[in-house]
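Worked Example 4.2. Consider the chain below.
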Amino acid sequence: MARITVFGADLSPFVQKVVRALRMKKLDFETLEPKTPLDLRRWNPTTGKMPVIEIDGERTWDSTRIVRRLDELQPDPPLVAADPAVAARQRLLEDWADESLYWYVMALRWNPGHADATFEQILGDAVPSLAKPLVKRFVKRQLGGAPWYQGLGRLPEDVLLEEIDRLLDDLEAMREGREFYFADRPSVADLALYGELTMACSGPTPEIEACVARRPGLVEYLKRVEQATGG
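Applying the procedure from the previous section yields the following structure tokens:
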């Protein structure tokens, strides 16, 4: 049996995607949370980002590359459909969740009205009170600046929420009443969406939680993904 370690913070949607894939495949693993930015560089000198997975001493970074590696390691159950057309749609939705929906959520999390709560969630307990004002300014500039440069962080909060509301409508329509996206079992698309929406509903942005709660079908869908991937 391979020895598997996942490096990354549980809150990260990309870490969640990997952890859910491991649980779905019933592979034993341990997790290691970063304590400082130096940990990120040590585990992933290429990009300095998480997650990273180590399988019998061999490391792979980036959640999309990792789930492909897991399918090689344990093909059953597969994380994409056997039908190439269905698999293509699943991979495209995974990419949209990772590269588009992620930035909508980050833009709202680091919006001035939510930035303090977001900081407290991810770093509040780890920073000494005397150093917190300085660290908070630095983190807001670094992490909060990314959505601004990406573009969505420049939108007013009410406009951003309107767009998120429309996206959730599109997601529900795209599922067409199926239990999961494009298939009868979870795929990389479902794992990616679960990670993003779980982060979005984790506390600092109650407005997104309310958007999700207004859609019972979406709430039930997230429960199904959770149950199918280890609870």
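The mean pLDDT is 93. The longest strand covers residues 4-7. Compare this with Example 4.1 before moving on.
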